[in-house]
Amino acid sequence: MQLLDEGQAAPGQGQHPPTHHDNNNVVNGLEAVKLRSTGSEYLPNGRLSPARDRSPIRRDLGRDNVAMSPQVYNKLKTMTSAVQAAEDQIRDLRATLRDTLRENRPSLVPETGAVATSWGTRRQANGHANGYTSLNGSPKDKGSAPASPGKNAKKQLRDKEFAVRNSPLTDLFAVNHISTIYHVAVVVLIILVLKTLVDDLVAHGTINMSVGLIWHCFGGFHRVITIWLVMMLATMVQYVAFTNWAQRRQHFPVLARRCWDWAFLAALLVFDAALLTLPVLRMLHYAMPFASSFALLTEAVRLLMKTHAFVRSNTPRALTDGSCPGFSHYLYFMFAPTLVYSDNYPRTPSIRWRVVACHMLEVVGCVFYCSFLAERYILPLYRDFGNHPVVPLEVFSNVMAAVLPSGLAFVCSFYLLLHSWQNAWAEMMRFGDRMFYMDWWNQGSFSAYYRTWNVLVQDWLYSYIYKDVVHMGFGGVPARFAIFGISAVMHEFILGFTLRFFYPALYVFFGIIGLLLSFLSVSQDGSSAVGNIGLWLSLFLGDGILVSLYMMEHFARENCAQVIDSSWDLFVPRSWNCTSLLGQTS
């Protein structure tokens, strides 16, 4: 590099201290060196690089032949070395910080109420991000089910942490690519309906909008609302009874206090039994159709889970000092879209009524879509079941024909119940934590699927069943059996009384096969492509088989004579005795 220019003094001859112009040369020289090393054309302050700047002052600074004094050159060289050393130190510090964070990551616990900016960044191992934190920070505890508890099992159990966060689909729909897929699905639905309506108009001269099936299934819904109001008033009475028990027991002696506790426990069990029994009796008395019966029994189970959560969460402090949360906390919890009690929940600043209207419109659309699938593609397959001999190949063909519409109805029901309906209520209640489900569609094992499919029920089962069973010293495996057993019984209770017969297909699929599959995992993270394809294939085939079995039993009870003339007829599958399944041909 040329250091001296014409007319410039040699070192030691007429040297002068650096001027302001020399300092500018130093700065611009540093920038030029940095630009040559990075290939950038622009300076950090937004100016054009010296190599591109054609001003007479700095146009030569971007070239290799830079004319400057020895003092300026030495200063430039020293500062360049210092900058390079600083950059090396920064890189070392970043590497050290990354290693430190990686080692200490299990001990990091998110703050309660912190706003989550992206649901994807909150995913833990195996897709768990349902707001639980462990007491000891073990990464295994952030899954839905902890490792097999040992002597420190109580310390490893985690507690529910609420935070302001969106549902996964809400964040995904904010991405244009995903929202376009949603729009395409709506267009496909519209085209499918239009095509069917045109076929009806050409073949029969009339149009069937499948509204008749909806009207029939929701018949007597005004009675459902009346019974629901009575159940809500009963839960308010339970709150009064609980506070009365908690406050009065503090003034009793030890023996009387024990008798008072046992009396309240007996009354609580009677209340829980009545909360499930009385709606069933009213439902049978009024002969409510399918959708009305399902809504009533589901709401009865929900209120039972709510009241148990409130009593279970507040009993420890009631036993300590007799304190109870205020009625406003209880009332908000009864309407909030969560089954885990807390004195305080994260809240949003306002209600967006437009969002509520959009979610309610989605609910109506999903109901219509499910009705359309049932009336057009599922009911015609089994409406005449029992009127003629059944051929096994024909049954197999009907099951395969029901797989796709049943799977679509399953996805649509998920979107209706766990996304649209829950988000509508969350918006009206200004409830901030809207992680009602997780990305179950990405999972590769049934174990991960069960943990992410329905976070609402999963949280309740873990908080009030799993933890209590483990605390009693039974271990993690019996606790998991208890979770699956209770969940399967509740599903069978709702579906059995809704259909007016007990056909244990759902119990076998969910309580037995589902439990066994929950111990299996295709890969370590449960998210491999093969596992995900297998999961979706199992879900669609399982839905098709379940729907086919229940449809055959339903129409067999309409088209076949009663086999057992007693109440046991409700428990004996009539579809097995209605016609021969040995392959008789007509």
TrEMBL record:
Family membership noted in the UniProt record: Belongs to the membrane-bound acyltransferase family. Sterol o-acyltransferase subfamily.
UniProt subcellular location: Endoplasmic reticulum membrane
Official protein name in the record: Sterol O-acyltransferase 1-like
Region entry Disordered, spans: 1-25, 38-63, 112-159
Gene: LOC117640334
Record organism: Thrips palmi (Melon thrips)
Keywords assigned: Acyltransferase, Coiled coil, Endoplasmic reticulum, Membrane, Transferase, Transmembrane, Transmembrane helix
Biased composition (Basic and acidic residues): 50-63
Gene Ontology cellular component list: endoplasmic reticulum membrane
GO BP of this protein: cholesterol metabolic process
Topology term for the membrane: Multi-pass membrane protein
A GO term for molecular function: O-acyltransferase activity
Coiled coil: 76-103
Membrane-spanning residues: 172-194, 227-247, 259-280, 286-304, 353-374, 395-418, 469-489, 501-521, 533-552
